[in-house]
Amino acid sequence: MSAKPSFYITTPIYYVNDIPHIGHAYTTLACDFLARFKRLDGFDVMFLTGTDEHGQKVEKSAAAAGKTPIEFCNQVSQRFRDLAEFMNFSNDDFIRTTEERHKIACQDLWVKLEENGHIYLDKYAGWYSVRDEAFFGENELIEGENGEKLAPTGAPIEWVEEESYFFRLSAFEEKLLEFYESLPPTVLPNSRKNEVKSFVEGGLRDLSVSRTSFNWGVPVPGNDKHIMYVWIDALTNYMTAAGYPDRDGEKFKKFWPADIHMVGKDILRFHALYWPAFLMGAGIEPAKRVFAHGWWTNEGQKISKSLGNVIDPFQIVEEFGLDQVRYFLMREVPFGNDGDFSRQSMINRINSDLANDLGNLAQRSLSMIFKNCDGAMPSPGDLSDADNAILDAVDALLPKIREHIDIQAINKSLEVIWKVVSDANGYFAGEEPWSLKKTDPARTATVLYVTAEVIRQIGILIQPIMPHSAEKLLDQLKIPSDERGFGQLGGSHRLKSGMPMDKPEGVFPRFVE
Ligand code: ME8
To answer: How many helices (H) and strands (E) does the chain have?
Structure first.
């Protein structure tokens, strides 16, 4: 394996009881963006996604569909793979919890926890929500419309009384509180860290980690009457894919602990509390960061099957274009906050940021080069203050972007790029190369060259967010494919003058209703 630094990022593994929707596409897109960014920035990246196929919820959904659980899983899991391909996600692996490698990993982790004295057999009596696959205390329940008891998520609950193994979660309070305070931050955004921290401060009860009332899952080693709690099984996927239980293997040594578990805020507690506790219990380092992003609503309403307003990512990509949807989802909402999907804001982003700002800048300048500079990249003359200012601005982008990416402020990383796009538009309009071309062709050549150089660097920088469009732009500038990494940014790799150009084609069309 190479000596490059490593970067391991994971998405949640999605339940196969439902077909993929915009929320799933969103989380995986954020990871795809970060994985692509890190690859271009010289890291050896492992990017994992997959499907969560065990548990009572899946067993029930399969029965309702008249299928065996595995037939059902095969079918729905494939939809998530199709989505990954359709959205141009660059995941390096796709894990399914029904795979043999995963069963081995789960059972090994269980044995480690048992050997370390963190698992004991007792009896569980309490409330369980199949929809959330989670246990709830009486004090957490809410009242439904007809006075019935519901989980805090609004899901129905059932009273469960059965023999169960327990994990000594209560023994990890202090270690978890220390973990939340360690730096660089282990849980982001800060509001989420505070949320999970105050939950732990409220006191932890031991966690029931096995069930005997259904079969669809990984059997507990040495007592196969018990099936492991689906969250132990699910969370372990992140280690399975890194080669666990082969802890001395190259892959595990390189990629564990994971750099980022990206999740939605709904599953923060599982990732920032249970998972690090399980790992601490097994003597394994927890992931370096859990980032819990916000929730999408549709035109102001909660997205739900019963409201019939689920946004189908396949359909919006067909309508608006893939890179356009990718850009909108990452740009529109501060990453971490909740966001609202509206057609109008999607159209505004496409027409203003993409078609007007970046698209016009590229199309106008490259067309002028093609028409006025004998179809080749011109040579710049002496640089004016204005030329230097815009070049300095684009040369200085990468370190600024990295600062945002280090805390997953994806939207901010795009904002700083678009600030330079906007400055470059101001520069181009201010220099008026079209009115100079007869009187001062040398100055025209310089302005066009400087603008094209800005576009070269912007083209390199937008590869993580809009891979296809960036490729088209860089192809038009005749940048060889091995000169598109972040090592090529900055002042020491300027565009080569004299390179023959083709007639440019617009990369960012306007959206017309
Ligand atoms: O929870 N807005 O799977 P899941 C933003 N199998 N993100 C959303 C969203 C929305 N409206 N709806 C869903 C599970 N998501 C478990 C995970 S991991 C070891 C096991 C995204 O299919 C978001 O990332 O219910 C959320 O956390 C995830 O889908 C839940 O997916």
So the answer is: 20, 18
- Domain CATH number, residue 401: 1.10.730.10
Q: How far apart are CA 346 and CA 328, in angstroms?
A: 6
Query: Which atom of ligand 1 approaches the CA of 12 most closely?
Result: 18
Question: 167 in a domain, yes or no?
Answer: yes
Q: Is the CB of 267 under 6 A from ligand 1?
A: yes
- Type of residue found at 97: T
pLDDT for res 303: 85
pLDDT of residue 279: 98
Could you tell me the end-to-end alpha-carbon distance of the chain, in angstroms, rounded to an integer?
50
- For 132-141, write each residue's pLDDT tens digit: 888 898 989 9
Cβ within 8 Å of residue 87, ≥6 positions away: 25, 28, 29, 32, 313, 317, 322, 326
- Cα angle, residue 473 at apex, residues 470 and 477 outer, rounded to 5°: 135
Output the pTM of the full model. Answer: 0.95
* Residue 295 Cβ < 6 Å to ligand 1: yes
Q: In what order do the strands lie in the sheet with 210-211?
A: 210-211, 223-228, 219-220
Low-confidence ranges of the chain (pLDDT < 70): 1-2
What are the DSSP E strand ranges found in 130-222? 134-136, 142-143, 149-150, 158-167, 187-188, 207-208, 210-211, 219-220
pLDDT of residue 92: 98
**What's the pLDDT score for residue 143?**
94
Q: Kindly report the CATH number assigned to the domain that includes residue 173.
A: 3.40.50.620
Both 350 and 251 in one domain: the answer is no
C-beta of 296 in contact with ligand 1 (< 6 A): yes
The best mutation among 13, 18, 19, 27 to test binding of ligand 1, ranked by most ligand atoms within 8 Å of the C-beta, falls on 27
Q: Determine whether the shortest distance from the Cβ of 298 to ligand 1 is under 6 A.
A: no
The DSSP string of 95-153 is: EETTSHHHHHHHHHHHHHHHHTT-EEEEEEEEEEETTTTEEE-GGG-EE-TTS-EE-TT
Pairing mode, strands 44-52 and 93-96: parallel
Q: State whether the beta carbon of 336 lies less than 6 angstroms from ligand 1.
A: no
Per the structure, the count of domains in the chain is: 2
Token pair, residue 142, equals 């809410």
- Structural domain includes residue 400: yes
Q: Is the peptide bond before 399 cis (omega within 30 degrees of 0)?
A: no
State the Cα–Cα distance between residues 492 and 370, nearest whole angstrom.
25
